[in-house]
Amino acid sequence: MTMRRLTTCSLLYGASVLLAASAVLAQEHGYTPADIENGSRLYQSSCAGCHGPTGDMVPGIDLMRGQFRRGSTDTEIIRIIQTGIPGTTMPPSSFSDTQAGTIVAYLRSLAPASGRAGAGGDVPRSDIVKGKALFDGKADCAACHRVNGNGPRVAPDLSDIGAIRQAKELHEKLLDPNALVRPGNLFLEAVTKNGETITGRVLNQDTFSIQLLDSHERLRSLSRSALRDYRFVKSSPMPSYRDKLSAEEMNDLVAYLVSLKGLRP
Ligand code: HEC
Ligand code: HEC
Q1: Does this model's pTM top 0.70?
Q2: How many CB atoms lie within 10 A of CB 108?
Q3: I need a surface site. Which of 125, 187, 247, 254 has the fewest CB within 10 A?
Q4: pLDDT tens, 70-94?
Q5: Any idea what the Cα angle at residue 230 is, between residues 228 and 231, rounded to 5°?
Q6: Each residue of 150-172: pLDDT tens digit?
Q7: Does residue 238 line the site of ligand 2, with CB under 6 A?
Q8: Which helix (H) or strand (E) holds 257?
Q9: Where are the beta strands (DSSP E) in 104-167?
């Protein structure tokens, strides 16, 4: 009886490992930015306590280098996360394959040699991680900007800003937001013939109408003939960070922005 149970158990276990392995294989080529964002949250809440926010607090271990001592494939690292490392303080966890997979995807996305998330040249990962913390926290860029599926749409999505802007330009943008407004980021202030004032980010325009995303993230289509007056806003709605961030913080933030290369599955 015990024997049979054991066999059934290990058979089931074997099958689920196989299933899990193929699911993971499929994922190895297809983590979405949202998955990685999730992984980042799980990492910061469950792992950073020991491994540190930048993955290098356990002596001799650097989780964000893209290489691990105890395994190489995603599947192996997922197992380590689930079972822990016996005889050490690395604890087991109850994360599902998918959850553990997103943590691994997050760790790999920060690896310097990764061609996907592209940590970008020789920028230390710790700067990128600090920059992300500033973006979501103290500098509160996330109040307006969307990255990898998270955040509002009132300002441009910055998920691929590192692919379209250089570090130097990004620096300048933070110091003087009015300096470099891309034509695609035009803001309009309009007054309709009914007296309603609408401001928003222009998505599209033609001879007859203007489509914009208003300040409540609603998509509006304004017929030009229904407008009493309208003007494109010259100054950027974005504040300057010249006096709000130290030079070091500015560098970290730019390192983070440069790392955003529009990761796609
Ligand atoms: C209580 C502290 C602690 C927590 C929490 C913890 N770890 Fe660990 N982890 C360790 C220690 C210590 C080691 C080193 C074990 C050894 O090899 O001596 C380790 C090793 C590892 C390794 C192997 C590294 C390698 O190079 O082979 C991975 C991967 C890992 N941890 C990932 C995680 C992840 C992901 C989480 C969160 C889900 C996590 N750990 C949570 C303490 C912890
Ligand atoms: C009050 C809302 C708001 C906040 C806060 C804000 N931004 Fe912006 N940002 C905008 C808007 C609106 C634009 C588009 C107009 C422009 O280019 O100035 C923009 C543009 C940008 C651009 C240029 C995008 C492009 O496509 O060229 C970058 C880069 C940027 N912001 C980064 C940041 C960073 C980093 C922070 C935090 C330090 C931040 N922003 C804070 C509203 C904001």
Answers
A1: no
A2: 22
A3: 247
A4: 888 889 999 999 999 998 999 999 9
A5: 160
A6: 888 888 899 888 877 788 889 88
A7: yes
A8: helix 247-259
A9: none
Give, in order, the Cα–Cα distances in Å from 61 to each of 6, 52, 166: 36, 11, 32
Tell the residue number behind the tokens 């006096």, with chain if given: 243
Mutation test residue for ligand 1: of 54, 61, 73, the one with most atoms within 8 Å of CB: 61
- The residues lining ligand 1, judged by C-beta closer than 6 Å to any ligand atom, are 46-47, 49-51, 58, 61, 63, 68-70, 77, 80-81, 85, 88-91, 93, 103
Q: Which domains does the chain have, with CATH numbers?
A: 2-111 (1.10.760.10), 130-179+239-259 (1.10.760.10), 183-233 (2.30.30.100)
Judge if the beta carbon of residue 237 lies within 6 A of ligand 2.
Answer: yes
d(Cα 93, Cα 100) in Å, to the nearest integer? 9
For residue 97, give both structure tokens.
Answer: 């394959």
